[in-house]
Every structure is written in structure tokens, then in C-alpha cells.
Design goal:
By secondary structure, the chain is of the alpha/beta class. It has six helices and nine strands; from the N terminus they run H-E-E-H-H-E-H-E-E-E-E-H-E-H-E. It binds adenosine monophosphate.
């Protein structure tokens, strides 16, 4: 992982104070997405971490995990599975409630999205308290997936989210 690429990406993150609630500093990744070089560089970091792992599916978390996760799955030539907010998936689902840095939510996964025993990598833009990813990990397990790693562009280390995901391997590129 080149320090130069990491610095460029870090410079591309826009901090938005008091969004979506007072006291939360939102890490806005849209400046990275709208820049072709930066977007490609960010996907390159995820790919570096995926190479050498046996992976059958990428699971992306609604909604920004879709942007990174689907590009990674496409580049690896493997399937992509969306983990969605409640009420958005049309077929039969497994669901789990979780708490966010700024609220409560429920997430769903199609019951047939992952074949029992498949090796799965979870992708999202940001790891904060870990509540979202921990319930994603629980859902992946519930449908029979084997979670081999969780990869995030950004990690808010002061919130200790990685504790909630133990013993899964956690990888992040931009740490705050
Ligand atoms: P958490 O469950 O607390 O780890 O929250 C992670 C999820 O909420 C991810 O899907 C993030 O996209 C989003 N999120 C939480 N905090 C922030 C933040 N400060 N900036 C941007 N996204 C955030």
C-alpha cells in the first residue's frame, strides 16, 4: 500500500461537521468517487487486500459499501451481495437490528444470497462503532457464509469498532 496513494485519498475525504446530527463529523467520500484517479486508487487498495485470499462473494453494506464492494467484485470476477436497510430487498430475508453512531436501524440479506460454506469478504466505506458490521457479520454467518475479512476505506479508531468484529480480520486504509 503506497503512502502516496493513502495521502491522496486522505486529502480527498471531506469532513462535514454536524451531519446528519449535531456532534457527528461525517466523512464524505463523494470527492473520491467523482475523481476517476482517486476512485480507481481506492478500489486498488481493496483489491491488494483481496488478492491471495480465497473469496467467493463480496458483501457490501447499504449504501456506500455498494459503491466500493461492487467495483471490487467486478474486478475480481466474483459475485456481489447487497446487505440492505429493512424493507428494500424483494425476496425472503434474514434480518438483524443494530445501533449506529447516529441512530438505530435494521439490515437484511436474502436467504439465498450466500451458499453455505462460501468464503465472504465484507466491504463498507467506514468503520465507526462497529454495530453495522457486527450485525452484517452475524447475518453472513446465519445464512452459512464464512467471513474471511472485513475491509473499510476509513476507520474511526477512537470508536473501537474493531473490538465488536473480533476474531474477524479487519483491514482499513485511512485511520482517524
Ligand atoms: P457503525 O455501525 O457505527 O460502525 O457505523 C458504520 C456505518 O455508518 C457505515 O455504513 C458508515 O457509512 C456510516 N457512518 C457512521 N459514522 C459515520 C461518519 N462519521 N461518517 C460517514 N459515515 C458514517
Amino acid at each position: 500500500m503506497s503512502a502516496d496513494v493513502v495521502k491522496k485519498l486522505r486529502d480527498g475525504i471531506r469532513d462535514v461537521p454536524d451531519f446528519p446530527k449535531k456532534g457527528i463529523t461525517f466523512k464524505d467520500i463523494t470527492p473520491i468517487l467523482k475523481d476517476g484517479d482517486l476512485f480507481r486508487a481506492s478500489i486498488g487498495l481493496f483489491l491488494e487486500q483481496c488478492r491471495g485470499k480465497q473469496i467467493d462473494k463480496i458483501v457490501g453494506i447499504d449504501a456506500r459499501g455498494f459503491l466500493f464492494g461492487s467495483a471490487v467484485a467486478y474486478a475480481l470476477g466474483i459475485g456481489f451481495v447487497p446487505l440492505r436497510k429493512k424493507g428494500r430487498l424483494p425476496y425472503k430475508t434474514e434480518s438483524a437490528k443494530y445501533s449506529l453512531e447516529y441512530g438505530e436501524a435494521e439490515m437484511e440479506l436474502h436467504i439465498d444470497a450466500i451458499v453455505r460454506g462460501e468464503q465472504v469478504v465484507l466491504i463498507d466505506d467506514l468503520l465507526a462503532t462497529g454495530g453495522t458490521s457486527a450485525s452484517a457479520a452475524a447475518l453472513i454467518k446465519k445464512v452459512g457464509g464464512d467471513l474471511v475479512a472485513a475491509i473499510f476505506l476509513i476507520e474511526l479508531e477512537f470508536l473501537n469498532g474493531r473490538e465488536k468484529l473480533k476474531p474477524t480480520e479487519i483491514i482499513s486504509f485511512l485511520k482517524y
